[in-house]
Structure formats: C-alpha cells, structure tokens
C-alpha cells in the first residue's frame, strides 16, 4: 500500500492512496492543474484513477472535482447528502450523474483490489465520512475534519499500519489569533477540527505493534505550524512508547508540495 499527501491544510486537501493496481484520490480540494502535476510527480496517470472519495462538500475538499471528473471520467464516491450538496454548488459545474456512487458509513466496498470502509465523523457538513483502506493485510486509517472522537472512531482506525491524522490547530494560537469569535467556537466545537493535543490523544489510543507511520495533516496556516504539531504529538507518543528505536515514524504533510510517498507491506517498509 502507498500513501502520499498531494495537498494538506485549510486551503486545500488531496491525498493519494494506492496499491500496485489501484489508484485512489481522497478529496480534490485544489485545482485540477495542481493535482495533475502532482500525480505526474509520483508517476500516476490521472486516467488510471479508480475513484475520487469525498469526505464532505466544503470547498477545500472539492475544488478540483468538476474538472477532474469531466476530463478523466473518474467515478466519485460520497454519501447521498454529500453528493447532493456538491451538485448544488455552481462552481463545480456539470458532472455526469453516472459518475456518482453513493456510500454509506460502515458499509465496506471494493475499489479495484482495495477494500474501502467509510465511517462517520463529527463535522459541520452533510453526513461527512472518513475512510479506511485495506490491501494484502495492510490497513491505512484516515481521520480528518472531525471535531471530536469516541470509541466508534477508535474502533474504525485500530490496527492501522499507517495513520493519516488531523492536527489542525494549537488551541492557544487559535484563541489569541485574529479569527472572529464565532469561527473560533466552530473550530473548537465538536463539529470542528482536532487540535494538536486531541490529535495526540487519539493517536495514543491507537498505538500498537503494527503501527509504523503517522502522518499529521490538515494543519491550519494561521493557527498552527508544523514543528509545533510534530512536537506535541511526538511528546505524547513517547510517553506511551518509550522505546524510540521501535516508535512509529511521525511526519507532517506538506501544505503546498507533494509529501514523500509512504510505501508499506507486510514484509518490509521502505
């Protein structure tokens, strides 16, 4: 299994997940031109994308969806509510209705040779979901755009070898920053975003001998920075995992450039 962050942050999100035979995009929240250039960089032909999985309809997750769908005829997957919300957005343009495929939380489906499971998340959108992926026994768990988590969330993400985890903001930076009060309350609320501290807490609940890679994503440009997110999570993880030689590798997804590809299988990590 492979994972690469194409774009990450409040201004746009797009993630590539794939096996040797199946290529998938999760969200397309930047321009099609940028996505095409990024796919070329990681040597993936856009015409071979098996599907675009949408978490929710906010613009930083669907900006490029219309152009990518029309240009490459890529199937689009999302909940009924998410897809209906996308269709209503004039900026998306017309998309062939036959490209839309509805998913339901907790209902597993196959995309090529990758098993996909959508699961519900707490966010201020129309029935939003995140996804987990399994291929040849390797599981990738994703958790972004969720204001809180519970045992259900943990149950969906457990036993992941790769975790792509939201670390959106530092609470102190957010509180003293220039955002209006209502926006601060939205971000801090149960339907907002995970802080660095809450991200670290969720990760610590998911630590196990299988976990090898943790990628922190969806960082706020105004209310966080990579070093702070990294150190906050690393500190908490080391308290739970004192042997640094076997601790999962922690990295922060780049905002504006393609992140390093994580490639993993049951026998060897590259």
Walkthrough of the structure:
By secondary structure, this protein is of the alpha/beta class. Helix content is 29%, strand content 24%. It contains nine helices and 14 strands. The protein has helices spanning 32-41, 59-62, 65-72, 80-87, 151-157, 171-176, 181-188, 196-206, 226-240; strands at residues 2-7, 14-18, 23-26, 49-53, 76-78, 100-102, 109-111, 114-120, 129-135, 138-143, 162-166, 213-217, 249-252, 262-263. It has a seven-stranded mixed sheet. The longest helix has 15 residues, at 226-240. The radius of gyration is 17 Å and the shape is globular.
The gist of it:
The chain is of the alpha/beta class and 270 residues long. It has helices spanning 32-41, 59-62, 65-72, 80-87, 151-157, 171-176, 181-188, 196-206, 226-240, and strands spanning 2-7, 14-18, 23-26, 49-53, 76-78, 100-102, 109-111, 114-120, 129-135, 138-143, 162-166, 213-217, 249-252, 262-263.
Strand order in the largest sheet? 6-5-4-3-2-1-14
Mean pLDDT across the residues is: 94
Distance between the termini: 11 Å
Strand content: 15-25%
User: Structural class from helices and strands?
Assistant: alpha/beta
Rg, Cα atoms, Å: 17 Å
Give me the count of strands: 14
Report the biggest beta sheet as strand number plus sense, adding barrel if it closes.
7 strands, mixed
List the SSEs and their pairings:
Layout: E1 2-7, E2 14-18, E3 23-26, H1 32-41, E4 49-53, H2 59-62, H3 65-72, E5 76-78, H4 80-87, E6 100-102, E7 109-111, E8 114-120, E9 129-135, E10 138-143, H5 151-157, E11 162-166, H6 171-176, H7 181-188, H8 196-206, E12 213-217, H9 226-240, E13 249-252, E14 262-263
Parallel strand pairs: 3-4, 4-5, 5-6, 10-11, 11-12, 12-13
Antiparallel strand pairs: 1-2, 1-14, 2-3, 7-8, 8-9, 9-10
Helix pairs in contact: 8-9
């Amino acid at each position: 299994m492979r994972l690469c962050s194409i774009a990450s942050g409040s201004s746009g999100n797009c993630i590539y997940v794939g096996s040797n035979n199946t290529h998938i995009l999760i969200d397309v929240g930047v321009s099609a031109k940028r996505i095409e250039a990024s796919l070329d960089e990681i040597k993936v032909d856009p015409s071979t994308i098996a599907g675009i999985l949408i978490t929710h309809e906010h613009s930083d997750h669907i900006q490029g969806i219309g152009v990518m769908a029309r240009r490459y005829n890529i199937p689009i997957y999302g909940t009924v509510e998410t897809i209906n919300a996308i269709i209503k957005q004039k900026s998306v343009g017309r998309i062939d209705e036959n490209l839309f495929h509805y998913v339901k939380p907790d209902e597993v489906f196959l995309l090529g040779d990758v098993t996909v499971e959508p699961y519900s998340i707490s966010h201020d959108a129309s029935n939003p979901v995140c996804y987990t992926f399994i291929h040849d026994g390797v599981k990738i768990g994703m958790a972004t755009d969720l204001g809180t988590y519970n045992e259900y969330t943990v149950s969906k993400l457990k036993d992941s070898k790769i975790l792509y985890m939201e670390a959106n903001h530092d609470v102190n930076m957010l509180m003293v920053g220039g955002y209006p009060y209502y926006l601060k309350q939205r971000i801090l609320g149960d339907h907002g975003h995970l802080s660095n501290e809450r991200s670290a807490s969720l990760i610590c609940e998911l630590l196990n001998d299988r976990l090898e890679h943790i990628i922190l994503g969806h960082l706020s440009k105004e209310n966080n920075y990579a070093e702070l997110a990294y150190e906050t999570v690393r500190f908490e993880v080391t308290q739970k995992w004192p042997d640094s030689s076997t601790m999962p590798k922690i990295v922060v997804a780049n905002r504006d450039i393609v992140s390093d590809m994580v490639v993993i299988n049951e026998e060897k990590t590259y």
